[in-house]
Specification:
This protein has 331 residues and is an alpha+beta fold. It has five helices and eight strands, in the order H-H-H-H-E-E-E-E-E-E-E-E-H. A hairpin with a 2-residue loop joins strand 5 and strand 6.
Amino acid sequence: MSLHPSAKPLGVSGSCSRDDVTQPRHRIFKFAKLSKKFNPRPQGVGVHPVSEAHSKELNVLTSYRLNDFKKKAAFTLAEVLITLAIIGVVAAMTIPTLVSNIQEAHFHAKWKECYSILNNAFRMTVAENPRMVIALPGSHYYVTKEYIDAILSHLHVMDTCGQERYDSNPCDNYDNYSWEDIKYKWSGIGSYSTRSRYKTLSGGYLNDYDFMNRAALLKNGAAIYFGGSHSGSAIVVDVNNYNNGPNVLGKDLYAINLGVKSNPVYIEELTFVPYGAAGSRCVDDDAPCSLVEPEGGFGVRGCSEDIGSSDANYIVEAAGAGCSYKYLNEK
C-alpha cells in the first residue's frame, strides 16, 4: 500500500528514526527514577530497595524544609522582651494585692478561731465560779490574778509574761531595747510602759492601758493580753503574735470588751463581745462610755483608718477598733 504523495512520514525530521521511537521511553524512565529517589516506598516483595545515599539525601531535604519552617514561625527577640515586660507590669500591679487579700483572709479566719476559743474559756470560768471578782477594788486598770489564771487554765498556754503582781516574768518589748535583747518577742508590750508596740489602723501609737496586766502565748501562735481601764476590762488578741507582724489594730490585732459596769464586779455580770458590737463601750450614744469623744470619733464606731484617733490611749478611741466586730461577723 502506498502513501499519498502529500502525507509526511512520522517523526520531527520527517523520517521514522530509532531516536524518535525511544525518546518517550527515555523520558518515562528518567521520571520513574526521580520518583523512586525522592519518594521511596517501603522495601518488600517486588519493591526496589532504596539506597542509603538516596535516603540521606531525602532526610537532608526534609530536615532543611522543617528548619526553614521553624525559622519562619519563631518570635523575634524584641517581641519576646516586650511580652515579658507586659507580664512583669501586670504581675507588679496584681500580685501585691492578691497576697494582701490572702493574708487578710488568713487573719480574719484566725480571729474567728481565737474568739471562739476564748469565749469557751470564759464561759467555762463563769460556770465554775460565777461570783469570781474580776476587778481589783478601787481600780479598773487592774483585773484580778485569779480571773486571769482561771481563763488561762482552759487554754493551751506556751508562755506568759506580765506585771509583777501577775507574773514572775516581766514582758520586755520596750521601744528603747534592741530586738536581740528582748526575751519575749512574741509580746507587744513592756511591763513597765504605757505604750505598746502596736499601731492603730491609721498608723499612730496605741497605748496599752486596756491590756497591760498580763500576756500569754497560745499553742496556736496567738498572743493574748489582759487588762482594764475606763473603757472596761478587755482581752486583746494578736492572732499571730507580735513576732510576725504587721501588728496593727484591725489587721492582726483585735479586742474583746467585757463591759465593766461597777467596781468591783463579778465575772457573771460581764458581757463578752467584740469591740464595735452592740453593747460594747462607746459604740453608740446609748452604750456606756466614760470617755470624751475624740475629734475623729470613737474607733469602735467603724472599721476605717478615717474613723477614730490615730494616736490613742484606749482601744475604743483607736482607728481600727470596730474591725473586731466587722470581721468576726463577715461571711
